Write the structure tokens for this entry.
Amino acid sequence: MLTLVVISVVAGFAGGFLARSADLAYAVPGFNPSTSAARVSDTLVIPKSSLAQEEAVVGIVKKYSPAVVSVIISKNVPIVEQCYVSPFGDSDPFANDPFFRRFFGDFRIPAQCRNGSQFKEIGGGTGFIISADGLILTNKHVVADASAEYTVLTNDERKYAAKVLARDPLKDLAVLKIQASGLPTVVLGDSNSVQVGQTAIAIGNALGEFRNTVSVGIISGLARNITASGGGQVEELRNIIQTDAAINSGNSGGPLLSLKGDVIGVNTAVAEGAQSIGFALPINDAKKAVEGAKKYGRVAYPYIGIRFVTIAEKVKTDNNLPVAEGAWLKSSDQDSAVLKNSPADKAGLKPGDIIVEVNGKKITSKTLLSDLIQKYNAGDTVKLKIRRGGQVIVIPVTLEERKF
């Protein structure tokens, strides 16, 4: 199963499109049976907004489903067959003794034996085309097996061998490349503008079998932090989108679209044992992965080189700190809060400093220093506002590429 299973989640909100008054509705001929108990109206009232939403969904699916592809995973796997072996193993003294077999029979035991290997499909996921020359975005866990081969199957039944161009080391994202041109593409939207209650459309290779399956729901929650697992992997996913649009095994890596037709997320996980609780990585996070794959052939992350504690009221009180919010550079018994020869060290940061802003953005319990830094690229210079003793100073730090 390629779709990750969420271990813990938090419930969200619900909403939808409703007609505000009767003058916003269409009248459709209906039934008019009468009984002694009740009478059904002559017309069935359908809100205009419902029909408009339906038309929008149909139009979006027609336009963008050709850019949604199936990712097929294949590899050599052992052929395991039923066989019988001696309980004494290879040193069985009676293995070739006809006299013994004549009187005592064949007492070998059933077992599973390998008999070579065969190349076969072992799974599938979803991706979507983001450039006409064959760049495809998907989940990292879909293409995690470096020993496997990957094939992309398009909506019009064409098959392409796919190369994994880059796997994101921190997020569940990967970029594939196929040799093609003139391909249909999606439009990448702005996940920062997504609102709870807006319509969401998921398209994907459901169960690895039903290609371009469409499901529709709403955005149920934003900025969720979850722990997800599956396929031997465990991953912390931060600031992700929750939706009640149905997401199933095989949907992993498919697009989550808005009613504008823009991709706002990459479908990634479902909640185990729950109904209609799915999650998608924000597309703005994926844009950075795509840029890195194009430019470097890998996904590059900025590095500052510090260890810190996010300040909350208890941290402030217990340590007699001067502020209630920020990132406190705190050393441990083994390690310094400022790593030697790191960008922070070169810029002059010191253990005990409290970083309160990054380029004017305040650090809070919800807006972490690490999240703010990840918005930038290696080589960018950021200005850190710092509390040092009784002083407030601004120190510029030039970020470097993080090594994994």
